[in-house]
Every structure is written in C-alpha cells, then in structure tokens.
C-alpha cells in the first residue's frame, strides 16, 4: 500500500512537472517571481488566500486590457460570481494572453515546489502518505497555457474561499462572544451574594460606558469619507473631491481599492467606539466591526463582485442618493450576535468539556480555579491589556499605517476569577 501511495503522489507531482517544464512563454523573463509594490509576494496578502499573489497579478493583467475591463464592468454580477465571464477571455489581446500564460507557469512552478516539500516532509517524518495530494482548485492543471477554464476556476474558487473565510470569521466571533458570557456567568456562581451583585453591576456599568460614544457615520457615506478627508488626510472639508480621495487611499497605486485599503478608511470611525486604552472596549469587537463595515461597503459599491473597488465603481456610488444620506451605524452591541438557544447549546458543550477535563485530572474540581479556556492560550491578540494598545503588522502596502489598523484573529482568554 505504501508503494501505491508513493506512486500516486509521484504521479500528481508529475502532472505538475509535465506542465511546468515547457519553455517559458517569454524566455527573457526570469522564473523568479518579482515582488510588486503592494507586497503581493506574501502568501496571504490582502485577501488572506494562499494563492493571493497569483490572483492579484491575474486581475492586474486582465484589467490592463481596456476592452476586457469594459466588458467586466458591464457584466452581470452573477456571471462574474459563477465564472461565466471567463468566456470573454478569448477576446483579450495576444500580449495579455502571453502575460497570463507566464503567470500560470510561475504558479504551477510554485505549486510543484509546495507538493515536493510536502512529500519530502512527510517522508522525513516517517508519515506514510495516503496519496491524496490536494489538486489546486484555482487553476486548470491539465493545460500549460492560461485558458478560459483557468479564469473560471480562479473566479469560482476565490469567491468560494472568501465567502467561507467570512462565514468562519463570523462563527468564531459568535463563539468568542458566547465564551465571554459563559465565563462571566461562571464567575458569578463562585461569588457570594454581595460580591455577585457588585460584579454584575460592574459588568453592566462597563457595557453602559462602552455605549457612550459619538454617533458613528454610515460606512462609505459622504459624511464618513469627508471626516477621513478632513481628520486623516488633513484637507479642507470644503474641497472634498472623489477622484483625489480615491487616489489618496489607493495605497499601492494600482487603480483599485482592495479590502485592506477599504478597511483603512474606517480607522477614525472605529476610534469613536473602541479605545484600546479603555477596559470597557473590546478590541476583538473592534476588529469584527471593521470587517462588517468592509462587507457593507463592498456589497454597496463592488458592483461586479470581483472583490476590488475600481474608481468607476466608487464614482458611481458617490452619485447615488444613498451616498448623501448618513443613516448612522449600529455597533455590534446593539444587535444580538447569538440566540438564547445557541448559547444554551454552547454552555452545555462547555460544561461537558470542563467535566471531562476534571475527570481526567487536567483541571481542579472547583470551576473558580480554572483560569483559562483549556484550548486557548492566555495571549490576547485582540484583548490586550487596556493600558497597552495593540498594533499588528499590516500588509506591506500599508506600512505607513502601522499603529492604526487592527487585524488579528479572535479569542482572548477571560479568567473565571479576576480577584
């Protein structure tokens, strides 16, 4: 069986090798991938996708063809989401097709190296490989050249992966909020009546204080963007110009706003409700708020659903009546994140998990002695101590904004007993 598995792995790698060892489309080009101005050479980049660089470069090459770009902007959003727009690839000029062929060759080369590394690592660790090497879903590995099927696969896979990332993020945040409530309730159970009342009052006072913040603008509205123009860009409020604003915040200068560039627009807005120095403000909630704003603006503005906002799309949005109306913004604490039924099920599962760990001797028998969630480190990517603001490292294109963006993942640990 091990010989069969080895053969299957070698066969899959062989498919990649056969498609890669063909001569480069442009022999003058180096096989080494350049790192462009916005740092798409990083594995995850702006989208967080493993194939982000390939995605970004394909998009940039396609958008360099004026005819294809015009067809893309006029396409039905559903045709883009399903990949039907890939049929238009046959109309792009020969120079663009050559560039796409070269990008695919480089991506196949990268995938071949990854496959070999995975295989060698498994062999080195003595792990028998089952032969089920994952075939990449974002390109057509059967053809060495970039065809319409490659574009269709890239569009469909990207849409699927980004939607799944948003779904998973929301689920993680819901679990995070339920964990906070669970630990709060468990702490109350360990206190006598007097201390319990004091703890509950402190909890409610903190929530009340958190809600006492200036009104938040509707993300993407004229009022919100003009505030960025005035306070962040330090320009006259009376001179707001959509074209200048777009160019100022197109940090990599590629003619599009990507998700990170859009999220950077919300920094001042988020500062109103989430202060890293205030113990009542939760930085995990700030991050989720930022992602919700990003989703909202893209849903309103990204009409062709390519996960980028072009200047024509932005300009069209500024001409709508909705752009002039500031409907405000309801923060996370103003709407339920989970239902009572979901919390009850979460509580039941957590109690079972705690009891299992107690039975195994991995936790003391008294719940008030359990300081941490058993599967989470006592490190807080979001919930840093209030006196110590958290400033993560942003993508390369946004190094100038270090100290302003909040983009870690979830889960801080709240001790059951803080006394």
Estimated helix fraction = 40-55%
Provide the spatial order of strands within the biggest beta sheet.
Answer: 1-2
Order of helices and strands: HHHHHHHHHEHHHEHHH
* Proportion in β-strands: under 5%
By CATH reckoning, the class of the largest domain would read Mainly Alpha
Distance between the termini: 58 Å
- Number of H/I helices: 15
Radius of gyration: 25 Å
Shape: flat
The secondary-structure class comes to: mainly alpha
Instruction: Label the CATH architecture of the largest domain.
Output: Orthogonal Bundle
Low-confidence segments: 1-44, 369-419
Kindly report the average pLDDT value. Answer: 78
CATH fold name of the largest domain: Recoverin, domain 1
The total count of strands amounts to 2
Question: Could you describe the largest sheet, including whether it forms a barrel?
Answer: 2 strands, antiparallel
Which oligomeric state applies? single chain
CATH superfamily of the largest domain: EF-hand
Biased composition (Basic residues): 209-220
Signal peptide: 1-22
Subcellular location: Cytoplasm; Golgi apparatus; Membrane; Secreted
Main location: cytoplasm
């Amino acid at each position: 069986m091990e010989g069969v598995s080895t053969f299957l792995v070698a066969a899959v790698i062989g498919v990649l090798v056969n498609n890669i060892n063909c001569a480069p489309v442009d022999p003058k080009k180096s096989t080494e991938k350049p790192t462009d101005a916005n740092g798409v050479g990083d594995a995850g980049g702006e989208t967080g996708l493993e194939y982000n660089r390939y995605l970004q470069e394909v998009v940039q090459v396609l958008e360099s063809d004026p005819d294809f770009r015009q067809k893309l902007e006029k396409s039905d959003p559903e045709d883009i989401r399903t990949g039907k727009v890939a049929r238009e690839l046959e109309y792009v000029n020969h120079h663009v097709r050559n560039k796409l062929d070269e990008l695919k060759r480089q991506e196949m080369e990268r995938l071949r190296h990854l496959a070999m590394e995975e295989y060698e690592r498994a062999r080195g660790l003595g792990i028998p490989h089952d032969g089920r090497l994952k075939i990449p879903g974002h390109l057509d590995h059967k053809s060495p050249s970039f065809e319409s099927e490659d574009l269709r696969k890239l569009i469909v896979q990207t849409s699927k992966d980004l939607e799944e990332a948003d779904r998973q993020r929301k689920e993680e945040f819901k679990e995070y909020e339920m964990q906070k409530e669970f630990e709060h309730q468990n702490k109350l159970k360990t206190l006598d009546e007097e201390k319990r009342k004091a703890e509950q009052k402190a909890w409610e006072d903190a929530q009340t204080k958190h809600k006492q913040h200036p009104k938040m603008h509707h993300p993407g509205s004229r009022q919100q963007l003009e505030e960025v123009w005035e306070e962040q860009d330090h320009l006259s409020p009376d001179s707001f110009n959509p074209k200048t604003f777009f160019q100022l915040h197109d940090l990599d200068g590629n003619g599009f706003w990507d998700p990170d560039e859009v999220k950077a627009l919300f920094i001042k807005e988020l500062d109103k409700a989430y202060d890293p120095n205030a113990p009542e403000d939760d930085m995990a909630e700030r991050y989720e708020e930022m992602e919700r704003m990003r989703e909202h603006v893209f849903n309103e503005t990204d009409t062709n659903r390519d996960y980028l906002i072009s200047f024509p799309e932005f300009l069209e949005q500024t001409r709508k009546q909705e752009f002039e109306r500031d409907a405000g913004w309801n923060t996370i604490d103003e709407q339920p994140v989970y239902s009572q039924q979901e919390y009850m099920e979460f509580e039941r599962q957590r109690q079972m998990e705690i009891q299992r760990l107690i039975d195994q001797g991995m936790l003391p028998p008294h719940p008030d002695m359990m300081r941490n969630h058993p599967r989470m480190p006592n490190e807080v990517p979001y919930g840093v101590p209030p006196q110590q603001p958290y400033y993560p490292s942003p993508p390369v294109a946004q190094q100038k904004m270090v100290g302003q963006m909040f983009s870690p993942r979830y889960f801080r640990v709240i001790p059951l007993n803080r006394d």
